[in-house]
Design brief:
The strands form three sheets. Strands 5-6-1-7-8 form a five-stranded mixed β-sheet. A four-stranded antiparallel β-sheet has the order 9-12-10-11, with helices on one face. A three-stranded mixed β-sheet has the order 3-2-4. By secondary structure, it is α+β, with helices and mostly antiparallel strands. It has 14 helices and twelve strands. It folds into four domains: 110 residues, Alpha-Beta Plaits, CATH 3.30.70; 77 residues, MutS, DNA mismatch repair protein, domain I; 54 residues, 5' to 3' exonuclease, C-terminal subdomain (DNA polymerase, domain 1); 102 residues, Dna Ligase, domain 1 (2-Layer Sandwich). The protein is globular. The longest helix is centred in the last third of the chain and has 22 residues. It binds a DNA duplex (18 and 18 nucleotides) through helix 9, strand 9 and strand 11.
DNA sequence: TCTGGGGTCCTAGGACCC
DNA sequence: TCTGGGGTCCTAGGACCC
């Protein structure tokens, strides 16, 4: 029996900003964009002042009530909620609070898996078992107590609220933490899957995105319960052996993945979207400067994190949003900005440059720690008799 | 005036080797 | 000369997530 928690900070970026500007509490607030809008003189610009190509990274619950959500273009959001306040993202500050809340959790429960800046999985099994040992206490009640203590610790360390789901696995906990936001604490046992999980939309499952969601919809499968009852053979036929079989498992709330407390990065990248699309010939100089700058920044990231990499990749997005990538593998791993620039430059020669460019990115993969052999997973050996 | 930036994982095909 | 299965490595694209 496992007790796995998923902890999700409530409207994280926006909540951090509200610590700084408490006078804005209760007003619709959106985080996103790179720079201030056109009216610099205003202390707090509104969405209607914005001009650019940014997207919403977070919005407060008051803003969500107006129909603006993460990922939405700011220009579109401005039409729905022109009076919502817009603050630019301050990632240094968010990282600071991220460290604080994770440290606070770690002090209570050390088995943490990082899932980005504002969420984590926590394996509570050992804690719950130790606490239950000898006592006639319901282990799920113990799990609830531990989770409540974690919420309290996070609040004391940061002044921020979070929502937690505790269930037998990561898949269910991820869904559970979202069931009672903000400041929710949801406990789900296997037996609760039909009543609590099956009524939900299939998109609530982490791993079913826009494409798979639309395809399921077209098959008449809207709810997780319908997915659970769907013919596994049909799903395999429609989605392939691997993903199709996983869909059935997920719908039944089955998931065996362990909480992984550390993982080496696989790639490090930098990319930038230009304020206006650039012409490959007429803006050659500017493009070249931006290109070199990206390489320098990736090299800096590699240095700081202590990696070198053998595969250098280039990413380009055209004005029509079509995206291409090219990469090449060097004989020797590097973290040298000039070597990266040279390799990425050779990739650039293999890409058509017949339209304006919206985005340029540079990536380094096949990472290794200098002096050590590359971190390479043993590739899965297919064995029919497994 | 649609659509950021940082990632992971999977698939599929071709080159090349035994 | 033709026919085989693996296996690894590399590249490109795409789905998905925070």
């Amino acid at each position: 029996m496992h007790f796995i928690a998923h902890l999700d900070m409530d409207a994280f970026y926006a909540s951090v900003e509200l610590l700084r500007y408490p006078q804005l509490r209760g007003r619709p607030l959106v985080i996103g964009g790179r720079r201030r809008g056109t009216s610099e003189e205003k202390e707090f610009p509104t969405l209607r002042d914005y001009a650019g190509r940014g997207v919403i990274t977070t919005s407060t619950y008051e803003a969500r009530a107006l129909g603006v959500f993460s990922g939405m273009g700011l220009m579109k959001a401005a039409k729905l909620a022109p009076d919502a306040l817009l603050l630019p993202a301050d990632f240094d500050e968010y990282r600071h609070y991220s460290r604080r809340f994770k440290d606070a959790v770690r002090a209570v429960a050390p088995e943490i898996e990082d899932r980005g800046i504002d969420e984590i999985y926590i394996d509570l099994t050992a804690l719950v078992m130790a606490a239950t040992d000898g006592a006639a206490l319901d282990p799920w009640q113990r799990a609830r107590d531990v989770a409540a203590r974690i919420q309290q610790a996070v609040f004391e360390a940061t002044g921020l609220s979070c929502s937690i789901g505790v269930t037998p696995n990561k898949l269910l906990s991820k869904i559970a933490s979202d069931l009672d936001k903000p400041a929710g604490l949801t406990i789900l046992r296997e037996a609760d899957v039909p009543t609590r999980i099956w009524p939900l939309a299939v998109r609530k499952i982490n791993g079913i995105g826009p494409k798979a969601g639309a395809k399921l919809e077209a098959l008449g499968i809207h709810r997780i319960g319908e997915l659970a009852q769907a013919s596994p053979a049909l799903l395999v036929k429609q989605f392939g052996a691997s993903y199709g079989a996983w869909l059935t498992e997920a719908a039944h709330g089955r998931d065996e993945r362990a909480v992984v407390t550390y993982r080496d990065p696989k790639s490090i990248s930098r990319e930038t979207t230009f304020e206006t699309d650039l012409h490959p010939v007429r803006d050659r100089e500017r493009l070249s400067r931006i290109f070199t700058d990206l390489c320098v920044r990736v090299a800096g990231d590699l240095e700081r994190k202590g990696f070198v990499g053998r595969t250098i990749g280039l990413k380009l997005r055209y004005d029509n949003f079509a995206t291409v990538t090219r990469d090449c593998t060097l004989d020797e791993a590097t973290r040298d900005a000039q070597a990266i620039r040279r390799a990425a430059g050779s990739c650039l020669k293999r890409v058509p440059l017949d339209r304006r460019i919206r985005l340029l990115g540079v990536r380094v993969g096949a990472l290794a720690r200098p002096g050590l052999p590359p971190v390479r997973e043993p590739s899965p050996t297919k064995n029919l008799f497994d």
